[in-house]
Prior knowledge:
Blueprint: H1 12-61, H2 65-68, H3 73-88, E1 117-119, E2 133-142, E3 146-148, E4 161-163, E5 166-183, E6 189-191, E7 199-202, E8 205-209, E9 213-215, E10 223-225, E11 230-233, E12 240-242, E13 249-250, E14 254-255, E15 259-260, E16 299-300, E17 303-309, E18 312-314, E19 317-327, E20 332-335, E21 338-342, E22 365-367, E23 372-375, H4 380-385, E24 395-399, E25 406-409, E26 423-424, E27 426-436, E28 439-444, E29 447-453, E30 460-464, E31 474-489
Parallel strand pairs: 6-9, 6-29, 7-10, 7-29, 8-11, 8-30, 9-12, 10-13, 11-14, 12-15, 16-18, 17-19, 18-20, 19-21, 19-22, 20-23, 21-24, 22-25, 24-27, 25-27, 26-28, 27-29, 28-30
Antiparallel strand pairs: 1-2, 2-5, 3-4, 5-31
Amino acid sequence: xxxxxxxxxxxxxxxxxxxxxxxxxxxxxxxxxxxxxxxxxxxxxxxxxxxxxxxxxxxxxxxxxxxxxxxxxxxxxxxxxxxxxxxxxxxxxxxxxxxxxxxxxxxxxxxxxxxxxxxxxxxxxxxxxxxxxxxxxxxxxxxxxxxxxxxxxxxxxxxxxxxxxxxxxxxxxxxxxxxxxxxxxxxxxxxxxxxxxxxxxxxxxxxxxxxxxxxxxxxxxxxxxxxxxxxxxxxxxxxxxxxxxxxxxxxxxxxxxxxxxxxxxxxxxxxxxxxxxxxxxxxxxxxxxxxxxxxxxxxxxxxxxxxxxxxxxxxxxxxxxxxxxxxxxxxxxxxxxxxxxxxxxxxxxxxxxxxxxxxxxxxxxxxxxxxxxxxxxxxxxxxxxxxxxxxxxxxxxxxxxxxxxxxxxxxxxxxxxxxxxxxxxxxxxxxxxxxxxxxxxxxxxxxxxxxxxxxxxxxxxxxxxxxxxxxxxxxxxxxxxxxxxxxxxxx
Length: 491
């Protein structure tokens, strides 16, 4: 008879209970600790969303962004941190050294070694023709990581849990262009060249009333004044600037300070040239040869002149100059209802293209010594009496649009008899340079030139732009306005 021993199973229940207890504790850890962490994560995400939106609203509410696309980043950073502290109790010190693996290009809080607040760019583009449309910026906020204490999970060997959250706000800066048609001139002094130093004021003093100063050049130094030079606008609301202002204006003698102004197109582009350069088939200018242009003291009548020099009275009408006007000593040219047209020696053909090296002489004016001018432009009454003069109402000096000569206006200017006797009418040289010097030019003129300089000894010039005494051509003014819009979270 064989007797088998029964297995002793006492204690198995205790072992199984111990194993199950560990499993149950792990489940409890997952349910309780991870649930708590998930709740903390949701709260952190809500805080990150609120902080990112608050930063976007700080960008949107900054008034400077509407005029030049910039804003105060310190305000944005402070807004983000304050919202994170209020909503998630994150202390300001936690941002020092905070790191975000997905940091965007611009870090406004880099002084604190903080990349957890970042953006795609440091600023929006300034409102201009090139920035019209939607300009998008992203502001990213990653909250400094926080620790969620683990209770049950420690029993199975796990430690505390780390929770973090990030959010990105999208801010759209929409630049719009509006255009208005005006009669008159967009500027009293319009300097049209798109490049180079085009307003070289040196030590000169220019005082302007009735209009703005616009410098189209976008070169790093578009306008420059020496320490003793000044360009002043005395009309309330008047402006000095251009597309690149204020950065490309050098010197401190501007009043008011330069500001960004829109690019100005040629406001008199529709006025016909003389000679074969006229649009259409009508030649509005004289075809007869003028006489006595070099006979001092002679009274001159409208016509085509190679040269005018010495003192003269000019009868009303148009004078075509093909070589130049020269004044020196005590010479003075005076007359009312006059337009001087500066062509080239190949007139009636238009001047050769700008910069062309040829034997053709490009006409201009050289007034030195005590040489003076007292002239007024074509009047409306003249235009009413003679249809050929109508396109030139308000014009005083018109240079062929390819005549890139430098015209030197120096001497004692025009103020011998006071401002009421000064030059009136537009001075127009879209390809040339106006070299304006002396100690007393008074002009009720609009000056439209490719370049403007006051090199040499200190000069004093007053430009009292009077629209009624200048061309009434319509021109279009384009203005640009930027409006930021916090479009909310982008994910």
